[in-house]
Amino acid sequence: MMTNQLLMNQIMEELLRHGVTVKPASQSSGGKIMDNFLNSTSTVPEFVGASEIGDTIGMCIPSVDALLLDHLHVQKRFTVIGILSSRTGAGPQIMAMDEAVKATNTEVIDIEMPRDTKGGAGHGVLILVGGYDPSDVRSAIQVALDNLSRTFGDVYNSAAGHLELQFTARAAGACHMAFGAPEGKAYGLICGAPSGIGVVMADTAIKTAGVNVLTFASPGHGTSFSNEGIVHISGDSGAVRQAVIAGREVGLKLLAQLGENPVNDFPSYIR
């Protein structure tokens, strides 16, 4: 009888032969469970991986049905479709996918941010990526899943609300599609909930450094009626980073006035 370890080794060899890399669960960061199809009980071939971070699941359809493709709200048609879907977060998953498309031969073809009841004052997310090779698309989904503990590093929660800060020195397709960020330029996201905190965070950030304001989203404008104030900025990398940090500082102080200090579950990456 074949041992479990021998079977695992054969599976790994077959995956590597097809260009698919899998990160063992013991290497996942942040102390959260990061499932993939080697340590998961899922028998669904489309399953790529899942994380309890944001309740995020990644899947890949190697040959999507043409009838479904006709009705998906995608900007470009691909036969191979990758899916990253979550209950909470949105911003962190989008930033993680931004890194994924930089590292793989894939493109973001749709991003939607639903108002999710599990998300407190915020959103969930649906991200679709396309490619020509299933191994590329699976790799993109896995890269995004592996980045979640980093991109959730500047999400701060309390019983009363939350803050989210994001920064990249070089925006790619995900940031461009979701937030209108110019590709190849530095981009920052500054979000506060309740939404009024986000207004003050945005004002402080913009006054701190010379940045370009792309948009400001609020409950009735640019969000799925979430209770958030969100400013999207771009410009010089150092200025954008400085503005995001300034927004974070005032947001932490304001949200703490509602009863408890907001805390992040993972180390901050914006310094």
From TrEMBL:
- Annotated InterPro entries: BMC_CP, BMC_dom, CcmK-like_sf, EutL_PduB, PduB
Residue ranges of domain BMC circularly permuted in the record: 47-158, 159-266
Keywords tagged on the record? Bacterial microcompartment
Q: Where in the cell is it found?
A: Bacterial microcompartment
Q: Name one GO cellular component term.
A: bacterial microcompartment
Gene3D superfamilies documented for this protein:
3.30.70.1710
Keyword presence, Nucleotide-binding: no
Under the heading SMART domains, the entry gives: BMC
Q: What would you give as a GO molecular function for this chain, any one? A: structural molecule activity
Q: Which residues form the signal peptide?
A: none
Q: Which CDD domains match?
A: BMC_PduB_repeat1, BMC_PduB_repeat2
Q: What protein name applies here?
A: Propanediol utilization microcompartment protein PduB
Q: What species is this protein from?
A: Levilactobacillus brevis (Lactobacillus brevis)
Its gene name is pduB
